[in-house]
Amino acid sequence: MKERIEHLAKKYWNAESTLEEERELKELLKNEDGFEQEKYLFGILNRYSSAEPKHIKVPSPTRRRMVNLQWLGWAASLVLLVSSVWIWRDYEQKQEQREAYEQVTEALALIQSNLSKGKEQMAPLQDLKYLNTTNQLFNPAP
Asked: How does residue 70 score in pLDDT terms, banded at 50, 70 and 90?
């Protein structure tokens, strides 16, 4: 009998035993004296297997929890909408500023071109700046 227990224990520890051999080993250990370590091990394993819950009930979400999540979704949508409108208005404002800048730049370029044309037309009058009076212009010196 002891030889059979030792043989089955060796197979068990080498992970070579079948379920029937494990059952036989447990039965033999119940009836045989000695083998305290094996009895203790199988006793612990039996205790843990009996302590395992058979059915675990998962609580279902309550209606209140679902309502809170629904309000969270509505709030997120509202924040998204408000931020989109704010970003769009900021974008339009920057576009208006860019257009105003371009108009001012065009106006200054027009002023500069007209000023340069005026300077070109005033070039013939450059000779008059050397005359001191109008009499010198109409009464030539002898």
From this structure: confident
The HSE-up count of residue 23 (CA atoms within 13 Å, CB side) is: 3
pLDDT of residue 67: 64
CA distance 15 to 95: 77
| pLDDT digit string, tens, across residues 85-111 | 999 999 999 999 999 999 999 999 999
Cβ 1 vs Cβ 32: under 8 Å: yes
Angle at 29 between CA 24 and CA 35, to 5 degrees: 135
Residue carrying the six token digits 């203790």: 40
Q: What is the dihedral of CA 69, 74, 77, 83, to 10 degrees?
A: -110
